[in-house]
Amino acid sequence: MNEINIFDRMGILLFWGSDSALLDHLAINLTDPLAWVPFFLTLLYIVLHNHSNKRERLVCLAAVCVTLALSAGVCNLIVKPLVCRVRPCNVPELREMFHVVRGYAENNYSFFSSHSANYTALATFFILLVRHRMMTAAMVCLALINMWTRLYLGQHYLSDICVGMLWGIVSGYIGWRVYKKYSHQESQVSELAPTGFKLQDIYISALVFMCTLFLVMLL
């Protein structure tokens, strides 16, 4: 513990584990990408339903792929193998001091967090794409919840999460710039958000997000 810098030590003390069975349940389930599949499908629906033709849809989907390829590729294929930082949950000294929820401990490296990078990249892309406060709130919550789960489960140090978040913002912005360069989608008004996305679709996505959280608490 003494070898860990004060920033990461603070993160461990503040976020890793608790005596709450409910928080254990939430963290272990919300960290699983499968829990978010319904919400991801609504994002896909928004892309398909709010672009005027096949070309525009393909451009947007390609931009999303660029976003995730950057966030995940740089993290998992370049940085993690180079840094080789062991996850806190796999450090024997820390395992003895802190609660490892249901024995959950991934074996690959810690720095930086691909969960943090990927969810932040996706959030940044869709915030810039849709530009509506409800979508912004849902995407920010999605990213923050997943960052919290990684800290709570002892999968990452706080610095892993912060660097992942910063790289995610960069990746999401690059993906959005790719979309803007090749898309000819026109902004509209009236029953639409300023960027041309249907408000009804945005409300549906926010509802699905809230329902996902509610169902995870119940199941």
Characterise the protein shown here.
- This protein is mostly helical and 219 residues long.
- It has 9 helices and no strands.
- It is globular and about 55 Å long.
Keywords:
219 residues, mainly alpha, 9 helices, 69% helix
Task: Describe the SSE topology.
Blueprint: H1 6-15, H2 21-30, H3 37-49, H4 54-83, H5 92-97, H6 114-130, H7 133-152, H8 158-182, H9 199-218
Helix pairs in contact: 2-7, 3-9, 4-6, 4-8, 6-7, 6-8, 7-9
* Helix content class: 55-70%
Shape: globular
Total number of helices? 9
DSSP strand content: under 5%
Order of helices and strands: HHHHHHHHH
Distance between the termini: 36 Å
Largest sheet: none
Let me know the number of strands. 0
Low-confidence stretches: 187-191
Structural class: mainly alpha
Radius of gyration: 19 Å
Mean pLDDT: 87
